[in-house]
């Protein structure tokens, strides 16, 4: 795993306004547990949904991260490729943020940080959430994949048995952590029938 100057891997976490704020929250919690240094950038719609779905306000959300950035602060550290980071995860990722990432439209810090991850060839995982998809959504997911990003809709693994919602969320987050190379990630492994 690529480590940054200190010793903790730096993970940029974007929270956008799709449903599923719990994915961003759980990811921040697990990154902390795993000893990662987290940089959070939450869009206004992301904060709104975190409040609607989880009752968390911006300061509660920000309390889960090591460093918090204003989405309008395009001069923040994570806006530059010279600031070494291990990976970025957008959890959840709205179709609007997906579209911006797919087309290099870096008009806020969240999409700029994702653009940086792609240009620096760092891991970028988008936990996209929408249903059903229109053609623009599908094309945008293809674009991001072609650029090296990983599109990861957090779909429940029903084959693991009767999981609670909490367990389903945990499983998706562990898979994402494994994808970005966090050593302590522990996704459920299929043991065969
Ligand atoms: C309650 C609620 C749920 C939403 N769920 C989704 C969703 O699942 N997927 C999506 O793409 N947009 C969803 N949206 C719309 C986005 O929040 C909206 O497009 C917003 O402009 C996204 O901005 P952002 O990407 O900068 O956060 C939802 C909005 C609200 C209010």
Provide structural commentary.
By secondary structure, the protein is of the alpha/beta class. It has one domain (10-179): Flavin prenyltransferase-like (Rossmann fold, 3-Layer(aba) Sandwich). It has seven helices and six strands; from the N terminus they run βαβααββααβαβα. A six-stranded parallel beta sheet has the order 3-2-1-4-5-6, with helices on both faces. The chain is globular. The N and C termini lie far apart (33 Å). Residues 16-19, 43, 45-46, 49, 52, 94-97, 129-130 line the site of flavin mononucleotide.
Mean pLDDT: 95
CATH topology group:
Rossmann fold
The ordered H/E elements are EHEHHEEHHEHEH
List the domain count as a whole number.
Answer: 1
Q: Number of helical runs?
A: 7
Structural Rg: 16 Å
CATH architecture term:
3-Layer(aba) Sandwich
> Which CATH class is shown?
Alpha Beta
Outline? globular
N→C terminal distance: 33 Å
Helix content: 25-40%
Low-confidence stretches: none
Bound molecules: flavin mononucleotide
Taken as a percent bin, the fraction of beta residues is 15-25%
Mind summarizing the main beta sheet?
Answer: 6 strands, parallel
Please provide the count of β strands. Answer: 6
> Order of strands across the biggest sheet?
3-2-1-4-5-6
